[in-house]
Structures are given as C-alpha cells and as structure tokens.
Specification:
The chain contains 4 helices and 5 strands. By secondary structure, it is an alpha+beta fold. It has a domain at 12-26 and 63-140: Roll (Thiol Ester Dehydrase, Chain A). Strands 1-3-4-5-2 form a 5-stranded antiparallel β-sheet, covered by helices on one side. Strand 3 (102-113) and strand 4 (118-127) form a beta hairpin. The longest helix is centred in the middle third of the chain and has 14 residues, at 64-77. It is elongated. The relative contact order is 0.23.
Length: 142
C-alpha cells in the first residue's frame, strides 16, 4: 500500500501490522511563537536567541512537544483516522530540533487488538534522517 495515499476513516478490521504513514513540516520562528502562546511554555531556550546562544544547544530549539504533536495529526487524519482517541504515548527526546529543521513524523502499526478496539504504534520523528524522538502510542478506535 502506498503510504502517501492513505487518508483516514479506516475500520479497525482494515488496519494491519506494518501500515505506515508520515507527515513533514519545517519548523519556523512563527510556529515556535504560536506553540509558546498555545502551550504557555515561554522557556527562553525556545524564545530568545541571546539566551539560547549561551545554552548547550547554542541556538534556539523548538518545543519537543511541537514535533510530537505531529503524531496526533497522523492519527486523526490518516491511521486510524477521524474519531480515534489517544490512550497512551511514550516519548524519548533524542536530539534537539532547531528552527528551520524539517521534521518528519512517522507512525507504524505494531499491533491491532480488535476485541478491545485498540491500535498500537511505533512513533518516530526524524530530522535529516536522524531520529530526534521515538516512542510508542496506543489509540482507541470507536
């Protein structure tokens, strides 16, 4: 199955182990400022060039949860699709994401429990083919 042709509204019986979809977005200054406004996280490592230059990162970094939020976009629009609900998500932040990096979020089905209506996923975000976030997710499919 062409992973780019998948667009939502799967019955749980149609979801199979190995199905994978991705979403990419380039992180801009405006994105970071909007995310700070929405989340309330105005940490200067995200907001201030001067502060970030003195940090271990040496320049501003995006909020880790901004990149992780792209998983939600995939779940709600692709697999499982509209109506699904997050049950759990683990996240391991491996590397920073800088402004102007292009983040690619990838979710891969690892298990389907039709009886409990749960779908399990491996979740990763990459920048320049390097993993910056990995984890696992569990979704309920109504």
């Amino acid at each position: 199955m062409d992973k780019n042709s998948i667009f939502g509204n799967f019955n749980i019986e149609e979801i199979t182990v190995g199905m994978e979809v991705s979403y990419s977005q380039t992180i801009t200054d405006a994105d970071v400022k909007c995310f700070a406004g929405i989340s309330g996280d105005h940490n200067p490592v995200h907001m201030s060039d001067e502060y970030a230059q003195k940090s271990r990162f040496q320049k501003r970094i995006a909020h880790g949860l901004m990149s992780a939020s792209y998983f939600s976009a995939l779940f709600g629009t692709k697999i499982p699709g509209p109506g699904c609900v997050y049950v759990a998500q683990s996240l391991n932040f491996k590397k920073p994401v800088y402004l102007n990096d292009t983040v690619t979020a990838i979710v891969t089905v690892t298990n389907v429990d039709i009886k409990k209506r749960r779908v399990f996923f491996k979740t990763i975000c990459k920048v320049k083919n390097k993993i910056v976030i990995d984890g696992e997710a569990e979704l309920y499919v109504p």
